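Final report, section 2: Outcomes. Of the targets proposed, Metallophosphoesterase is the one most frequently requested by collaborating groups, and we therefore present its record in full.
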Amino acid sequence: MRIKFLHAADLHLDSPFAALPPEQAARRRREQRELLGQIVELCNGEQCNLLLLAGDLFDGATVYPDTLEVLQHQLARCRALVFISPGNHDPYGPDSPYIRSGWPKNVHFFTEPSMQGFQLPHLDLELWGAAFTGPSAPSLLDGFRVSGERPAIVLLHGDAQNAASPYNAITTTQLEQCGADYVALGHIHAPSGLLHAGKTAYAWPGCAMGRGFDETGPRGVYVGTLTEEGCDLQFHPLDSRRYLILTVEAGADPRQSIVDALPPETENDIYRIVLTGPSPRLDVISLEESLAPRFFGLTIVDETYAPRDLWEARGQDTLRGLFLQALYERRAEDRELYEMAAQLGVAALDGREVPEL
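The predicted structure is given below as tokens.
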């Protein structure tokens, strides 16, 4: 047995990208459509037998006609069998894009909120899955076990991190007891790596394209191989631009501090830059405008505070004053050491993050 598959999930096609200006949001939606071609090219290039799409292919029931046309065209180019398990954002139902015409013959949907099976004798494989038919779903894997007649893959959209989740909660016990060789999951937006529950291998690839600052880092899909020896997964990043968060000590010249902290190439990415530490009063809008041409998108967050004399509170009848006075009286012994201690102590007393010195 040697079955090769591409496992993708949570493409969220036609996302609003509301945090971006309209022109850039439209461009990001076009890039989502272009991602479909990348996935099919990779699937064909790797000579995969199966393309597994584990839910939330669409961000909602309202889909641009161009998006559906591109998706159907790309899947028709795919030389693998395609299986789709609808998720909580794109449940199978009367308003679903999945019931519209034009889907190629190699595409198969799970349509019920209970486990359904496809027998694939030419691959010596059975493939099981289920669908969300509304915005939530019970634990679809509860009590289920594959037939055991052939090797088996299960395809599901569900929450494997929260046993009380309304989004098809999946437990490690259920994964172990289902008897599948591999469970291809969606819903969690960060890639998991290859995991095991007993003899069952499972994973979720995360979203294939980041859409916000809660989806930072590389984004892509898994290409997997299933053999008698087990399952192997390789992560393939496909994102053309990324969301990145950068924390910068503002200093006396915040703009130059940012420039000095940036990598050489930033024009394709979307940055949130958090300015910290003591600094003169910032004009965040002007700072963003002056730096914006270096990025696809930029947000600057001001977490600085007004600079002040480090020792100004010494001698006051307060915890801060007594602490600083004690250090000030000894700083002649080692000026650098005691000033560092004072900075750390004042930061802690202010409830600020202790600076790296």
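The first helix runs from residue 22 to 45.
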